[in-house]
Amino acid sequence: MAESRENKYDQHFRLDLEGAVAYTREVLDFFSKDAKLKGEEIGDGNINYVFRVWEEGGEEKRSIILKQGDSLLRSSGRPLDIRRTEIEAKALMGYDKRSIGLSPRVYQFDPVMSLIAMEDLYDHENLRKGLLAAKVYPQLSEDITTFIARNTLLTSDLAMDPKEKKKSQREFVNPDMCDITEDLVFTEPFTDYKGRNVVLPENMEFVERELYKDRDLHLEAGKLKEIFMNRGEALIHGDLHTGSIFVTEESTRVLDAEFAFYGPIAYDLGNFLGNLFFPMAYHRLVNLEEEKNLTREMDFLVWLEQTIVAVVDRFVHKWKRLYESRVTDSLYKQEAYRDWYLDRILGESMAMAGLEIIRRIVGDAKVEDIENIKDLEKRVKVERVLILTGKEFVKEGKSFKDGRDLIEGFEKAIYDTEKMEENADDTN
Predict the structure, then answer these.
(1) Could you write out the DSSP letters of every residue in 8-71?
(2) pLDDT of 150-198, one tens digit each?
(3) Residue of 44, 186, 200, 259 with fewest CB within 10 Å of its CB?
């Protein structure tokens, strides 16, 4: 990349589409000087601005992604630490070293403009959208467990020099983004103390009973929040949902790491697992009844269940194998200690999965898996099933042993929801 830059980029300002194309031409040494460039804004998130710039009519298909952070949150305009983009850039570059080929390549980071220039994954698709369309990704469980295992264990005190780990931990202090998670995931779904929850009127009474008034649930959520806020055991992605992953049948890439910080390993694994239950609920409770191609729907659901089981099983296998080769401390190398550590991660991750499910149903950061349900009656039922699923995971997850326990918890929630409906019909 070019070292020189125009004076107009010596102070931060937010780029629009025209500005993104101009920046690419004037600052980045990616295209030839006479290339005819075009661009489009592709970001649809709540936080940052994302542009794709490409060469029009070139013999070789060349394109680049520009992701810029602003000092104001895109969705609400609230002030936000612009340093989050530097954290994301460093996280992505670290992924490329620890888990090669599982994240987009970073070409350049501009700290003044708070901008990352990175590889364009034009031949990949968003995992959330793919799962919503009942697409199968044979490589997904293999790749995502490699990503989580390597990027957490190798940045923990188990495998990293303690002084280097503490130095790295200071570089990834990310208070604004952590504050967002602490509120939206751990607190507001159970108290709505800021009045930002978005609940269907038809489910308000259900939410008040099952979430706002369940003190035992609040206790478990509080325990998990304390873990999130105080256990800086490894560098975690911090927002590892299916919308932050791009895929093909042969490839998986993780991006959107602006929430990265040193936190509990269980949060990344739990976040990913929890997000698999949104397409599970949609295809099981909505699309299976409406889809003419029932064989395709059934095949997808079988694969999705197998994937949930495989994610847990493969994570365990890879964690143990990596543990044996990279952990050297004599106390940590004990098999009993390794198994205790791993069991704790698994139990907490399954409870964290429940938090992610609940917050996506009642919070204001929705998922299209649920938002796309046109039939109100079916959506009401899906939301209730997922709320009960999340509660089961939060309250009982620490006793779960594998992915099959998660699936059984989901099935139990379907049964309990249908029993509630029957009892309501009997009283009417």
Answers:
(1) GGSS-----HHHHHHHHHHH--SS-TT--EEEEE---SSS-EEEEEEETT-SS--EEEEEE--S
(2) 999 999 999 999 999 999 999 999 999 999 999 999 999 999 999 999 9
(3) 44
Domain assignment present for 132: yes
134 and 110 share a domain?
no
DSSP states of 384-407: HHHHHHHHHHHHHGGG--SHHHHH
My answer on whether 101 and 176 are in the same domain is: no
| Model confidence, pTM | 0.94
Strand partners, 79: 72
Yes or no: say if 229 and 178 are a contact pair by the CB < 8 Å rule.
yes
* 30 and 169 share one domain: no
Residue type present at position 148: I
- 215 in helix, strand or coil? helix
Indicate if 40 and 82 belong to the same structural domain: yes
> For the segment 10-33, what is each residue's pLDDT rounded down to a tens digit?
999 999 999 999 999 999 999 998
Length of the chain in terms of residues written: 428
> Domain residues for 67?
7-119
